[in-house]
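About this split. The held-out portion is used to measure sequence recovery: a designer receives only the structure tokens and must propose an amino acid at every position. Recovery is the fraction of positions where the proposal matches the reference. Here is one held-out target exactly as it appears in the evaluation file.
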């Protein structure tokens, strides 16, 4: 999942942004719940014997606990976070992907997202290699994934949210190869070259969503912040702060149409619990109040199965600034 990731994680903004806050001389900062990345769910899943029968460990952000067995994961403890780690069960075969892990940072933990090649060997006869990017986002994932075609529909992208923060702030570290081109590897054909360097990316959008009588969801874009990282940092950059731009930003010098344009690729659950495409239809007024916040960190960009193996993006202490 790269540009399209994501529950019914429905809880009030008062819960989402509760007492975990600090005040600076000029701004108030609110830590997104579990945004300090110090609490993790550890899942031990048994893959099917036909592909080796190994026990794989997946990580999720939530209250500390260990879950053993092939149990579909649901966000726990009011954690608003989901990852591209997933358990799939296709035609009875259980397979996992783990591209987001827990890593150490200072005296606690952080999230580590890595682009890698996920390999599947079937009865020693066939090797399938798929490129998978690491992604961390606000929302949820419906498990198990039962079809590669329905993968995007398993993502519930974004969470209910009605605030208007000035900026997002977090600590990060990046390691990228700097290769001139990316690769596309779907597992069903030979790897192909995709023009353009790979980079890690952060996407934040505030939306005002509307659902019609048939359950279709449309949205106006309220706020936008997108930043990409094409160079390795060599170490941590702490307290990086990025302004959220409101309203129609197409005339803003910071606007990049390819990165910040209206989106037609994200899925969310409607009021009936059905996954539907969220279609952004226009730009909201600059003073509009949002209904949803979507935030995603990814180790690669460009779409599913596209990236550069080895790209790594670490994130910690994710806050909103008011």
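Reference sequence for scoring:
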């Amino acid at each position: 999942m790269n540009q399209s990731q994501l529950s019914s994680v429905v809880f009030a903004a008062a819960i989402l942004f509760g007492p975990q806050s600090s005040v600076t001389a000029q701004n108030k900062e609110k830590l997104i719940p579990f945004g300090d990345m110090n609490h993790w769910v550890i899942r031990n899943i048994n893959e099917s014997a036909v592909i080796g029968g190994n026990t794989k460990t997946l990580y999720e952000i939530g209250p500390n606990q260990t879950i053993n067995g092939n149990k579909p994961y649901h966000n726990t403890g009011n954690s608003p976070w989901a990852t591209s780690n997933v358990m799939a069960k296709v035609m009875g075969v259980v397979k996992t992907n783990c591209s987001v892990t827990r890593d150490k940072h200072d005296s606690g933990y952080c999230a580590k997202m890595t682009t890698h090649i996920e390999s599947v060997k079937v009865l020693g006869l066939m090797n399938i290699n798929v490129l998978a990017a690491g992604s961390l986002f606000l929302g949820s994932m419906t498990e198990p994934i039962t079809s590669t075609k329905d993968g995007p529909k398993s993502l519930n992208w974004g969470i209910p949210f009605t605030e208007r923060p000035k900026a997002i702030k977090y600590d990060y570290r990046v390691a990228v190869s700097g290769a001139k081109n990316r690769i596309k590897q779907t597992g069903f054909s030979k790897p192909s070259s995709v023009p353009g360097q790979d980079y890690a990316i952060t996407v934040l959008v505030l939306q005002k969503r509307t659902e019609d009588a048939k359950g279709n969801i449309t949205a106006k874009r309220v706020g936008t912040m997108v930043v990409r990282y094409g160079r390795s940092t060599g170490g941590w950059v702490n307290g990086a702060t990025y302004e959220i731009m409101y309203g129609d930003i197409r005339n803003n010098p910071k606007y990049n149409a390819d990165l910040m344009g209206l989106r037609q690729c994200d899925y969310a659950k409607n009021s009936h619990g059905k996954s539907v495409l969220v279609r952004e239809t226009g730009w909201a007024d600059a003073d509009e109040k949002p209904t949803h916040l979507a935030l995603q960190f990814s180790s690669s960009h460009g779409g599913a199965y596209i990236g550069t193996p080895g790209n790594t993006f670490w994130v910690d202490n994710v806050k909103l600034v008011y």
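Annotator remark: The CA atoms of residues 13 and 209 lie 16 Å apart.
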